[in-house]
UniProtKB/TrEMBL annotation:
GO MF assignments: phosphorelay sensor kinase activity
4-aspartylphosphate modifications at: D924
Name this polypeptide is given: histidine kinase
UniProt keyword terms in alphabetical order: Kinase, Membrane, Phosphoprotein, Transferase, Transmembrane, Transmembrane helix
Membrane-spanning parts: 182-200, 212-233, 286-307
Entry-linked PANTHER family: HISTIDINE KINASE CONTAINING CHEY-HOMOLOGOUS RECEIVER DOMAIN AND PAS DOMAIN-RELATED, TWO-COMPONENT HISTIDINE PROTEIN KINASE
Domain of life: Bacteria
Keyword Cell membrane: no
Residue ranges occupied by any Response regulatory domain in the UniProt entry: 874-991
Length: 1001
């Protein structure tokens, strides 16, 4: 009966707790809903609310849309409940902005009248206080709503009421869910009580205690305690939230009264803490109840278990910890034994207490020999000094020192007396009897050696120069030094023999070349042994008998690596020794690096050899081209001399009728055009070969333009072209002759490629340091497809196959090269109509005028007077071509008082010169037997002919030919075909000078 009574009591308590919990949850929900709506009302600015009309006119206004977005965001922040607003108008309520979407069935357009508002809405209007309604029903459904006013802070007038809805079904669902924990906890206690009673009753009837009983009792105690603790925490949380929400409601009421003047004015607006902050403040009571409940639960459970299982638990812990300790010892020993670095531990007295296997290998002392000995006495030669002793005393007291927690380089002594270079990582360990030192020592001798090797290797590779043999010798020497061998050499297979191109410390009697058969290095080259071959004992290989050097010099060790050139093995780099070597992987890598350096050197040497060969071939080809042009110039000019010479004689013959004169003029035009083509080709060859000389000086552009227009205006008149000249008074730094040649090319092109009766403009523009000269025309222009090749040799300006326009297509190429040689640039700019070619040269300063103008006799056109008093002049012409002799004779006989002597060979010319002592000698260069230079030399050597003026008249018209002629001693150098006007001016100038000399005598 007592058990039943206690069960009924527990059931009643569970139901009472559930009902009380439901009431508390409902109250908390009301306060929470009220707090949320008050937060929303505080977030809305009263000025924006005051601007609303709460009618259909608000729809679409910026303030209305902005407030609706704000309400939607606030609704999501507070859990997604629907927010709505109403305002009193003429005793009725009208809806304003809402958080609902426009397509929501509960949404109300602005200005909609609220048909069935809750009674609490009127109370809010009168009291200006926030409140939560009782469950009510309106035209939209059944709700519980919290209402909060928005009041004008100055007039105290109610501007709007904000409502937050909680659907009625959701409201009661939350209340029922909140009351479940208390009911479940009570029922759980009742079940646990029943199970406990049943177990105790059954154990008492059996008269024995099962081994699992202590754990079941502890479990019942634990579950009961957890249920009671959970119930207490739940109730405490509700109470804490209730208290915080009550405080928030009180603050909200004070704030509302302050805003509409219900109480005395305050110093500032009352700021309510956010709901999230108010809720975060709750929980102190819950934490206290939970902590105490858990504490009592744990204590009760521990007490129940401790009395029964303490002995078993202790034994189990001892067993487990003993196993873990043994396992840790085994793992520590395994780790320290396999470590590659020496691990040493020293006690406060300086004695070794730990010594791993790496320490045995590094220092040479066994573990049993090292443990217990003074570490510094053992590894420091002569024992520790005063500084070390002071450091030890400091470490024993404080566990600190200069080397603690650092990596330092140290030097120690091994057992055999050798020196050890190492890195020490030292740390301190606090033990019961003082500070212990744990040191990890790493041998860095190998690393230091590798660093020195790398430095030497980098220095070698960086110092390689252009000389192939020096580079091979240097690489071979570095290979021997780094690998510490007795000798090193580089064997190069060439033309079926082995050549020792690189040698270091090789025997003096070792031949520089040898037959490859039998040599180990030859097998490395032909791939029999792979790309590398390393052996420490050649006596155990077949090479001890077949390699002649192994037997002759007693070689026992060999390291060789193949050297490649363009994917073909051409040699081997090797080091040898008369003792047994034990090469390391590092040694093999260094040998491979140096072999790769030799491979790169072989590739570079091959490329340089090919480049040198290609350069020599190009020079030979260029020389052949020059010789060809020189021969072609002579061969073409010689017949052209006769054509143009006799044509000019015919042109001067008054007996020809008009038709015959026109035919002669056509011959002259064709011949002169052919001569221009020959001159242009030769000029291009001189420009491309770089043998053209420039005399850069200040040149007045206007003078050069005037000379060019004097030559080109007849061509423009024939085509009806008008030439306009703009500002051309600038001074350019240029070669006057070449500048004139460039301008003639550009202007003549502008005339040739212009339309009939077109126009050409020539002007110049001064820039910062340059002057741009432009030649524009009104022709067809240059198509886009031809502009890239415009300044290339033999490129024509037209693409329609119109061959009526004469030219070789090399004028622009010559012009570009000439402008570049004068330090400028040339280009072309397209126009809507025609083309614009331009070039830029440096601007110059006016040159100082020299006193006394000198007149060049070659350009003087004043004829020599021919009267009966004139002395007869004798002119000797030496040429192996009869046509040339006749032509010159015809030309000179037009000059009154001139006797012409013709000599068809150089020997006859010498005899005539000695016999007649002529006033002027005209010499051809290319003659069979004795050429013009031989005749010139003989004439200058003989006293009776040394002062006679000599004129070269030859078809050798290249710049090099002219320069050679002037250097040889000719007084004037004229080229064929013969220019009659220039020839007569030159002859008359010499004869006039000769007459003056004789008159003075």
């Amino acid at each position: 009966m007592l058990v039943v009574f206690m069960g009924i009591i527990l059931l009643v308590v569970a139901l009472a707790m559930s009902a009380w919990q439901a009431s508390l949850v409902e109250s908390n929900q009301r306060d929470r809903l009220l707090i949320q709506v008050v937060e929303v009302a505080n977030a809305l600015h009263w000025r924006r609310v005051d601007s609303l009309t709460f009618s259909a006119d608000d729809l679409g206004t910026p303030i209305f849309e902005s407030m609706r977005v704000q309400l939607r965001a606030l609704a999501e922040r507070h859990g997604g409940g629907e927010l709505w607003t109403v305002a009193p108008r003429n005793g009725e309520w009208f809806f304003g902005p809402e958080s609902l979407h426009a397509d929501d069935p509960l949404a109300s357009p602005p200005g909609t009248r609220y048909e069935s508002p809750p009674d609490e809405l009127g109370w809010v209007l009168q009291s200006l206080q926030a409140t939560t309604t009782q469950p009510y029903a309106d035209e939209y459904g059944e709700f519980v709503s919290s209402l909060a006013p928005v009041v004008h802070p100055q007039t105290g007038q109610l501007l709007m009421v904000v409502g937050l809805d909680a659907p009625d079904t959701l409201w009661w669902s939350e209340i029922h869910r909140g009351s479940r924990p208390a009911l479940l906890a009570g029922l759980g206690l009742l079940v646990v009580f029943g199970l406990g009673v049943a177990i105790v009753t059954r154990r008492g009837r059996a008269g024995v205690v099962r081994p699992a009983a202590p754990y079941l009792e502890a479990a019942f105690v634990l579950v009961s305690g957890l249920l009671l603790t959970g119930l207490g925490v739940s109730v405490a949380q509700q109470l804490d939230q209730r208290e915080q929400q009550t405080e928030f409601v009180r603050l909200a009421a004070l704030n509302s009264q302050a805003m509409h003047g219900a109480q005395a004015p305050v110093s500032g607006p009352l700021v309510l803490p956010p709901l999230s902050q108010s809720q975060s403040l709750a929980g102190d009571r819950a934490w206290g109840v939970g902590g105490l409940g858990m504490l009592f639960t744990v204590l009760a459970t521990m007490l129940v278990m401790l009395l029964r299982v303490r002995h078993l638990s202790v034994e189990q812990q001892v067993k487990e910890r003993s196993g873990e300790l043994k396992k840790s010892q085994v793992m520590l020993k395994a780790i320290t034994d396999v470590a590659q670095d020496a691990i040493v531990m020293m006690d406060p007295r300086g004695q070794v207490v730990f010594w791993n296997k790496s320490a045995e290998r590094l220092f040479g002392y066994r573990r049993d020999e090292a443990v217990g000995r003074d570490l510094h006495q053992m590894v420091m030669p002569g024992g520790p000094g005063p500084e070390v002793n002071r450091a030890m005393r400091r470490f024993a007291q404080t566990g600190t020192g200069d080397a603690v927690d650092r990596i330092v380089e140290v030097s120690a002594q091994r057992r055999d007396g050798s020196r050890l270079a190492g890195e020490l990582s030292l740390s301190s360990l606090r033990m019961t009897d003082g500070w212990y030192a744990v040191g990890i020592v790493r041998d860095v001798c190998r690393r230091k050696r590798m660093e020195r090797r790398l430095i030497r290797l980098n220095e070698c590779l960086a110092s390689l120069g252009p000389d192939y043999q020096e580079n091979v010798t240097q690489i071979t020497q570095v290979c021997g030094e780094l690998l510490e061998s007795e000798a090193a050499l580089y064997n190069r297979l060439k033309e079926g023999r082995l050549f020792a191109l690189g040698r270091w410390r090789t025997p003096e009697d070792m031949p520089l070349s040898d037959a490859p058969e039998g040599h180990v290095c030859h097998d490395v080259i032909n791939g029999t042994l792979g790309k590398a071959y390393v052996t420490g004992d050649l006596t155990q290989t077949p090479y001890a008998e077949q390699d002649p050097y192994v037997k002759r010099y007693g070689i026992k060790s060999y390291m060789g690596h193949a050297v490649r050139c363009q994917d073909q093995v051409v040699g081997s780099l090797c080091v040898v020794s008369t003792s047994h070597m034990q090469p390391t992987d590092e040694d093999e890598r260094i040998l491979g690096i140096l072999a790769a350096a030799l491979s790169a050197e072989e590739g570079r040497h091959l490329a340089m050899s090919r480049w040198q060969e290609a350069k020599e071939q190009a020079d030979r080809a260029n020389q052949a081209k020059s010789d060809f042009l020189s021969r072609m110039s002579h061969e073409l000019r010689t017949p052209m001399n006769a054509v143009l010479g006799f044509s000019q004689l015919l042109e001067a013959d008054p007996s020809l009728d008009e038709g015959q004169q026109e035919s002669v003029r056509e011959i002259l035009r064709g011949g002169r055009h052919l001569l221009d083509l020959i001159n242009e080709v030769l000029d291009l060859a001189r420009v491309e070969s770089g043998r053209i000389e420039m005399s850069i000086e200040p040149v007045l552009l206007g003078d050069v333009v005037r000379d060019c227009l004097t030559l080109l205006r007849p061509l423009a008149r024939d085509k009806g072209i008008t030439i306009h000249v703009g500002q051309v008074d600038q001074i350019l730094m240029a070669d006057r002759t070449r500048l004139k040649q460039v301008l003639i090319n550009l202007i003549s092109n502008a005339i040739k490629y212009n339309r009939p009766h077109g126009e050409v403009w020539l002007d110049a523009q001064a820039r910062a340091e340059d002057v741009r000269v432009r030649v524009r025309d009104t022709g067809r222009g240059v198509p886009e497809s031809l502009r890239d090749a415009l300044f290339q040799p033999f490129a024509r300006l037209h693409e329609d196959g119109n061959e009526s326009i004469e030219g070789t297509g090399i004028g622009l190429a010559i012009s570009r090269r000439l402008v570049e040689l004068m330090g400028g640039m040339i280009g072309m700019t397209g126009q809507e109509q025609g083309s614009c070619f331009w070039f830029e040269l440096k601007a110059g300063e006016p040159a100082a005028q020299e006193s006394g103008d000198e007149v060049d006799p070659l350009h003087s056109s004043a004829p020599v007077a021919a009267t009966g008093q004139d002395r007869h002049f004798t002119v000797l012409h030496v040429d192996d071509n009869p046509a040339n002799l006749r032509l010159v004779e015809h030309v000179l006989r037009q000059r009154v008082g001139v006797q012409v002597l013709n000599a068809p060979s150089g020997g006859l010319g010498l005899e005539l010169a000695r016999a007649h002592r002529p006033d002027l000698i005209i010499l051809d260069i290319n003659m069979p037997g004795m050429n013009g230079y031989d005749v010139l030399q003989r004439l200058r050597q003989e006293p009776e002919t040394t002062d006679i003026p000599l004129i070269a008249l030859t078809a050798n018209a290249t710049e090099r030919d002219m320069e050679r002629g002037r250097e040889a001693g000719f007084d004037q150098y004229l080229t064929k075909p013969l220019d009659m006007a220039l020839f007569m001016r030159v002859v008359e100038s010499f004869l006039k000078a000769r007459k003056a000399d004789l008159t003075d005598v």
